[in-house]
Amino acid sequence: MSVSPSSDTVVESLASRIRTVQEATRGISERYPRSYILECIKDDRFPEEMWLAMGEQGLLGLSVPEACGGSGGGVVEIVALGEALALGGVPTLFLVVTGLSRVPIIRHGTDRQIARFVTPTCDGSVKLCFAITEPNAGTNSFNMSTFARREGEEWVLNGQKVFISGARDADYMLVIARTQKASEVKHRTEGMSLFVVDMKSPGIQLHLLNVQVETAERQYQVFFDDVRLPAEALIGAAGKGAKLMFEGLNSERLLAASAALGLGDYVLKKAVAYAQVRQPFGKPIGSYQALQHRLALAKAELEAARLMTYDAAARFDAGEDAGAQANMAKLLASRAAAAAMDAAIQTHGGYAFDRDYDLITLWPMIRLMEIAPINNEMLLNYIGEHVLGLPKSY
């Protein structure tokens, strides 16, 4: 007779998995602190030393099966890594795009594709980014115009993508493109395919965007002009890329949530420390309920979002369809982080806008979390339609 594990055992197991990753990550953030990332941003260079150190420690291989050259673990582990890095003040967008890009390749790629495009990302020697958003399509990805046509044994890619994080530093880019026009298919989800594009291929042009979000990864518009792709660049079956794409996007939402949680706690910690020592009227401003309640509420909301995030991650690892939970997690975490940042700014007053306090430097990235990788309004649409069963609103 088998006995199911108690809820306490499950909770402790989950907590142990998270704790193990966070303890390992703490060594990285102590070795490469916030000042290191700020220096990389100032010099406009990728944090290569930190990235390779994460590879050496096996952190970049989290969520990749050992059979594929990874460190094992699941979504819980890579989410814990993302949160721990942000909590240490060293968030990296490349972890988000790498995490989502590897999912469809691991699940649907050939052994050769996994060995070439996934395994080397585990030690940091190869970087992988992701391209879906287009200037005219925006959130409506099904309306994309980037097109790959079959020509003999090759594919020829034309079009453009925008807001592509880390395109300059990536070795390969996972690109979703139409292989059939929208007018030629019965359903808009059909006729889309996933390709891995070698960034050294002729016909690729990068245009740096003037996006004022202070991260080591810059944002680019990417142009594809008759870029020739070998047959093995196609992941899975042609025309079936939409389903593969969403498998990766669910993990992306949780990685975004993890970064929001870590950054939210990071700025909240700075606010609490400042509120303990700032005494313009002879007592710490942290004793004023107007500030104390705001900080306390921010903490409570971060903790609630954290529970939702790890619940969704654990569901994915258990083989469940946790798309709804992933959407809710990203929604709640981004809102909680923005509230924490707003409370931190109000606590610091005018000093919040002094770059030396390193608070306003983080505001654009935290605020971005409510827009990217998908805006919160679309998440609410999803919850309304697919969870509550309401009519489609757009």
From TrEMBL:
Listed A to Z, the keywords are: FAD, Flavoprotein, Oxidoreductase
- Which domain of life does this protein belong to? Bacteria
Cited PANTHER family:
ACYL-COA DEHYDROGENASE, ACYL-COA DEHYDROGENASE FADE28
- List the cofactors: FAD
Q: What is this protein called?
A: Alkylation response protein AidB-like acyl-CoA dehydrogenase
Span of the signal peptide: none
Q: Which Gene3D superfamilies match?
A: Acyl-CoA dehydrogenase/oxidase, N-terminal domain (1.10.540.10), Butyryl-CoA Dehydrogenase, subunit A, domain 2 (2.40.110.10), Butyryl-CoA Dehydrogenase, subunit A, domain 3 (1.20.140.10)
The Acyl-CoA oxidase/dehydrogenase middle domain is annotated at 129-210
Residue ranges of every copy of the Acyl-CoA dehydrogenase/oxidase N-terminal domain listed in the record: 19-124
- Molecular functions per Gene Ontology: acyl-CoA dehydrogenase activity; flavin adenine dinucleotide binding
Family (UniProt): Belongs to the acyl-CoA dehydrogenase family.
Query: Where's the Acyl-CoA dehydrogenase/oxidase C-terminal domain?
Result: 239-387
Q: Which Pfam families match?
A: Acyl-CoA_dh_1, Acyl-CoA_dh_M, Acyl-CoA_dh_N
